[in-house]
Amino acid sequence: MTAKIFVIGLPRTGTTSVSVALLEQGFSVAHQAFTQQSFHLADVVSDAPCFSDYQQLDLLFPNTKFIYLTRPLEKWVISMQMLLAKMLPQLAPHSGKFHPILKRSFENCFQVSTVENPLCKQHLTNCFLRHQQQVQAYFANRTDFLQVNLHEPNSLTEILDFLGCSQQQSLNMPHLNIGTHVASWDEYSHPNKISSHAFGPNRRKFFDYNLPTPS
């Protein structure tokens, strides 16, 4: 399969900001991808299910580059609490309206349907640190992996250098979905955007790698 770029940072680490920045650099981008066709059409896929399925996607797409986004933990927890407070009703395994792949990704990383309080600061801290440790262990000593904090100066230049893109000057990273805002990707118009639900030869089928999917 064609090499890709997967952005595997957790939600609220800047996945929308990176997605928009790479659109502006000429990449086709899917912010979330729930069909095989979405993955095939996009140069870059970010957010769900990449942050939960990076190991499976690594096997499906050889020679892919992985970008892990990180963020100061205290700020991430506060932002994640605001996001989950909005999302929890739609993440419920049976009654929630979100796509089953999205629900599975959140369940995998945050156990939203099994813990007593998914918004608990300590729980989210543990989730963040566990995910970070797992990612760092899996990609240890690999040259196709970049860890970057978007709030650091020249983070976009660092990403573009990693991707082998030439630029004449340092570029600033756009910062979207700040505070309680969570819809910047939907509101952003660009011809290189790829639908998360793209229809293709296998209709809207996802990959078969034998992970349980909530209904």
TrEMBL record:
Name of protein: Sulfotransferase family protein
Pfam families: Sulfotransfer_4
InterPro entries: P-loop_NTPase, Sulfotransfer_4
Gene3D superfamilies: P-loop containing nucleotide triphosphate hydrolases
Source organism (scientific name): Shewanella intestini
